[in-house]
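Entry 14. Ran structure prediction on the chain below.
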Amino acid sequence: MSEIDNEAFAWVVRQRMRALDRADTAAFDAWYAADIRHRGAYARALAIDNAMHIATGNQVVPAADKTRGRVGSRRRNLVLGGLAASMAAVAGTFGYAALHQGTVLSTAKGEFRRVPLQDKSIASINSGSQIEVAFTRHQRRINLRKGEAWFEVAKDKSKPFIVAAGDALIRAVGTAFSVRRLASGSEVLVTEGTVEVWSRDGTAARRLVTAGEHAFLAPDAKAIPVTRQPDEVNRRLAWREGKLVLTRQTLGEAVADFNRYSPRTIVIVDPALQDKRLIGQYQLDAPELFARDVSLILDVPVEITTERILIGRAHDAGRRAI
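Output, structure tokens:
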């Protein structure tokens, strides 16, 4: 890989592992603007990093530092060398595709993508989701057609960054937040800064939502409820690291989350198990491990087939009803 590619990957790793402070942000902005080749290298690095994140079980491969010395550098270069060739076509097409007007970006079930937008913002797209990118000279606009996405928004006060999700509109400048479309409305989770939420028809008054807060806009709602739940915001966004975190969620809620990602559908055969509370942390691509834990914790049978995972027995429900 070229020196520019190595520099780009170093920036991507630094951004993934911690939020950039003001000095780091200024340094990145200067590097990004210094050479048009830096923009292409940054797009490629994001695509490669995304593939590495999935291929290594969602574990970050850290950049070399002085304490790791040459060993850390060799490890990073070996990983990059193995992936660079296979990812070249993906980076060249998908990475640059995000830089064009009217681009539609989609993910299949169980697939995650982290892509750069032309203003240096980043969109992390959750499983089974689709966004349309429509940037103009006066506005940066995203249409969330379905699913969920988390946005790290580059600061540009002259061009508002607006996400449309059904009846909901969300405006941000230099912040990070997620939007999810549900049948019952649109959910907004803010991880950094402040966003403004309102409805297309203006029936609900505009609300400011700050870091650690959650907002929900239902169709035809007269108000937008906002609650402060920083721990819950982080829990719900654990999908960015390929994880499902449970802090006394019900079995029904956990199964619904797993079924957003896994091609192998989990079925709760005994309805009496739906409201059992669980605590734990699981990889989203390992529903079998989750099911086996449930079997041990709740002392219920689990059957794993090629297409489904069955939890509990149907006749158990009948005995409980007697």
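The longest helix spans residues 69-97. Will compare against last week's run tomorrow.
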